[in-house]
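Reply to dn_fold:

You asked what the input looked like. This is it:
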Amino acid sequence: MTKRKFVFEEVDNRPAEIRKLSETIAPTYSQLPNNHAVTWLSLLLVMIVFMVVVGGMTRLTDSGLSIVEWKPISGMLLPLTSEQWQLEFTKYKGIPEFLLVNSDMTIEEFKYIYFWEWGHRQLGRAIGLAWFLGFAWLGLKRRIPKGWKLKFFSIGILIGLQGLIGWWMVYSGLLPGMTDVASYRLAVHLGMAFCLAGLVLWFILSLRLNFEAAMISRRNRDDKLYFWMKIYLIALFIQIILGALVAGIDAGTAYTDWPWMAGHFFPSDYWNFDGAFANVFENPANVQFNHRISAYALSVIGVLAFIYSRKSPIRFLKKCHTALLFLLSAQVLIGIVTVIHGAPYQIAIIHQLMAMILWLSVIWTCFETAFPRRQALT
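and this is what came back:
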């Protein structure tokens, strides 16, 4: 007679298969709390969020073209003498932005915009250094969790790529006839920053959940709610990109009434430019209208996800979705206020910071939906 076995008994008797399963199906999950790696990634995340805020202020103060060269090493030094400042100012005087827009700028005014761009670049260097030192230290101490070396290395690759995208963006504003960076390049730069922040947060959450706990929590996943969260995330990313296009051409000042645009729902000059590219990326009416419509669609998706989350028996997950709906509502309200007041930098920067907070919150909620916490059901 065959001896009766229990499910957990069978699992315990097959450690090799479980190890293989851990490596092939869910290499994202580690076996230990990984506090050092989590601390390192958390520091990177905070720096990236701060970087997005500083980058937003650099854009809102029209400071992005004040440094006309890309010098990763020697560019670390701030001009100290009057001669050095005059040299940098002379370089700036040779670009279209100065010739066509800021021809009456004084050197003291130049220093103000220079500080913003220099600070933005310095913070980028600091993020790269923080990644390198943390990665090297974890490697030397053999504290990189199994299966995570390539993931940690990929963060460094993306940070370096973001730096290249930043210069690619700035270079577009130095070309003849350009007085700002190309809006689509700005959108790529901002989109990469949000993707990088989201990836780091997902890694942090994954490191806090070991493989066994992940496999157990997946059994409680609501696949339909998880599907809605992925749609939510995609819709939010599209909205963020459209927001970058608005910022890139100052489209937020084109129409300052709401819910109408110059008294109409659909602006009459939506397709006034020549060609699809010019209309989609350079027409203020088109860009602002698209951003508004995307916000309405995102709001509907957010409400539907919230309603569906009420069916979940997991209390913490319900709280996450409630907080998410609150953040989404706040962001929509801030967006309306930004439009009505003509996009002043004080409100616009709050709008951008709130976009990052909402983005990270959606990713966190998406993770909690994918791997629900074990707790009392309601």
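Residues 218-378 form one domain.
Hope that clears it up.
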